[in-house]
Amino acid sequence: MFSQHLTCLKKNKRKVLIDFKHRLALCKLAFQDIPNVTVSELEKVCFDNIAAKKRMTTEEDKGQLRVALVDLLETLIPKYEEKTSCSGDFNDISPLAHQSTSKLSELPTRKEYSMALVADTFMDLTAGKWKRSKDVVRLIEGRILVIQRIILPTPIHMSSNEFSKDDVSSAVIKEDDKCSKEYVSDEELQKRIQAVKEEFGSSISDNIRIVRIPGLASVSSTLVRATRNEEYLSKVLQPKVLEYIKAHQLYSFS
User: Fold this and answer.
1) Which residue, among 19, 48, 16, has the nearest Cα to 3 in the 3D structure?
2) Same domain for 71 and 147?
3) Phi then psi dihedrals of residue 33, to 5 deg
4) 190 within some domain
5) Residues 87 and 135 in one domain
6) Three-state secondary-structure class, residue 9
7) Are residues 141 and 66 in the same domain?
């Protein structure tokens, strides 16, 4: 398993992500008691090697570097450069596909990788919203486990002044909404998989699997980052994760 977002300095329009070392530590705490799960640091290796290749040495320079999943996959699957690009542009192969370093040389030359994505994220990927989305799909040969999330009412009363009004309205269903519902319907998913088949062929689309977990409720990461309400956080975060966030003054505890 890889911690989300490669670059420790990656920015978007609203926020700067916390340092990579903290996100890595949080992932390790969250998954340490789950058998057969390893939290990998290869994302950082990928970022550092691309930065070195581009001769980026200052934090300011590195802050401008955008490294995405496709770059990591090309690190893990270097033989991809020998395949035909769905976009027709393979002059823009990640430098790591051609680069050998002491750490990367230890990687196996060929392994099959799969992705587990919630349904709305799968829709974004296959709609081309990721960097080189088509190449990502080709790299993993369509091996995607699509998890249908269920939106459920938050367990804490929404009138609590500990919550940001904007974050609550965008992140969770109001308590008076009695009907749980999916982010993405079965019909929407099937239409998108059919579109993937038409574009990439059945050898890719047939590898996509959909799983619906009735007991899996949706937890809003936006709300988790935005609130200091420990009653709510204790219900959606593991105790060690919450302790780490508080101890290092992350997110709303900063």
Assistant:
1) 19
2) no
3) -100, 10
4) yes
5) no
6) coil
7) no
CA distance 28 to 3: 9
CA 187/CA 229 separation, integer angstroms: 37
Collapsing DSSP to helix, strand or coil, 216 comes out as strand
Residue 32 has pLDDT above 90, yes or no: yes
Q: What is the pLDDT of residues 118-140, one digit of tens each?
A: 898 999 999 999 999 999 999 99
pLDDT(249) > 50: yes
Find out whether 157 and 172 touch, Cβ atoms under 8 Å.
no
Beta-bridged to residue 40, according to DSSP, are 2
On whether both 132 and 177 belong to a single domain, the answer is yes
Same domain, 104 and 124: no
Digit-coded pLDDT (tens) for 62-74 = 888 888 999 999 8
**Residues 97-108: what's their mean pLDDT?**
46
Of the ranges 29-43, 159-173, 223-237, which one carries the lowest mean pLDDT score?
A: 159-173
How many domains in the chain?
2
Residue 10, amino acid: K
Helix (H) or strand (E) holding 59: helix 59-62
Q: What is the pLDDT confidence band of residue 18, given thresholds at 50, 70 and 90? A: confident
Domain span at residue 167 reads 112-237
Average pLDDT over residues 76-97: 45
**In the predicted model, what is the mean pLDDT of residues 172-193?**
66
Cα separation values, 27 from 195, 239, 252, Å: 34, 13, 18
For residue 228, is it within any domain? yes
122 and 228 inside one domain: yes
Q: Judge whether 195 and 205 are in contact, CB under 8 Å.
A: no
In a domain, 95, yes or no: yes
Is residue 120 within 8 A of residue 184, CB to CB? The reply is: yes
Q: 106 and 163: one domain?
A: no
